[in-house]
């Protein structure tokens, strides 16, 4: 029935194994693609090399939806680089932190700034970390606490945001997996509908909020906060002109607003204005909408940078090119992920997995299994993107085979993204973990050890109060409320306040 049988899973196994061993995701995905080509071309090396390039990689790049995702990602990267070089985001963060004069308000401002810089996890780590470091030093908030608040908002916000540098990648993987499973649906609408099942990102954000608001800590963070009381404050950062904040606010607002407006206009034209929201979104082309938003953002950022004298006319295109160059590795991963997904589909690996495991895996357990597996891979490799690339093409078809309705597929796909975020958040070799340490000036080992108890607590709550009951069909919005209550209870029971000064 399935021509290649168990060997169809070999490319995925090799990709995961090499990633765990080498921690080189480009090498690992590339090896998986080449092995798949070898199998498809009856182990002929030359034919396999040709097949790897044409059709696998060329088709991945040439697909019209993939081109839109690529352009969206590049345009957003160019926009962010203009905003960054023009110091727009730094100015915006400075404006929202002017009221931070107590420890609580300082931690809440840090958390809020992390929520504000939702469009990219790397930008979040570096911008918020650098901008808030002097503020936290002045208020005697430990670098470890600062690093945790930055890290706990970076990837979780980027993966949840309706528009970010993550979304194109996530939506494209989901769209390809749905097609391979024979499901005709709008990938962006599927992404949005699955948001309430993204338990870990939501609970990680809430956990950070609970820690910031309560002033309570547990684990090694208690000692780190106590030591911060005796730390000499650093000089305050240069105050930037308030007008520069518009360089960040307007393009980012346009990115979100134009994307949303495009979805609405397209959807109402296709389904009518009296249709339900998800029907309207489902009737729109999500890739077109994201592309429209990124074009508007890039154009406005360019105009504002020059008009506000943040950058010169010649510096703007240089900034755009710099932003694009910074994405070379990420785009390579994206292309290889698409190619591997196509190869897995040609091998019918999902079909074999469905026939082998479908009858044996209870539907209620699948989201939890996928969540834990994705977390383990992301922790060991330090990459959430690579984890998504190898798991989503298998997980979504398996979920649809077990339960023909899309409910289980929504919970399962969300579990992949959530688990990848959790593993990435905990991993000492994760880019965002390292950048959080770098941006905040925190010792990396200290950041990892102080953050881990909080990340593990939010992860455990995501399983016990999220993925498991969701597998039985419990409303995900209700589970999010219960999960937040559980996280608040953990902080209340385990947390204690360090000895603080009277100024706090």
Which blocks of ≥5 consecutive residues have pLDDT under 50? none
- Multimeric state of these chains? single chain
Rg over CA atoms, rounded to whole Å, is 23 Å
Number of helices: 24
Largest sheet: none
Pattern of helices and strands: HHHHHHHHHHHHHHHHHHHHHHHH
| Estimated helix fraction | over 70%
Mean pLDDT reading? 84
Rounded to the nearest angstrom, the distance between the terminal CA atoms is 68 Å
Portion of residues in beta strands equals under 5%
Shape: globular
Query: What is the domain tally?
Result: 1
Q: Kindly name the structural category.
A: mainly alpha
Describe this structure in words.
With 504 residues, the chain is mainly α. It has one domain. Helix content is 76%, strand content 0%. It has 24 helices and no strands. It has helices at 10-22, 25-40, 45-62, 64-85, 88-96, 103-116, 121-138, 143-160, 167-180, 187-193, 199-214, 221-228, 245-271, 277-282, 286-307, 315-325, 328-347, 349-357, 366-381, 384-402, 406-426, 431-440, 444-471, 476-494.
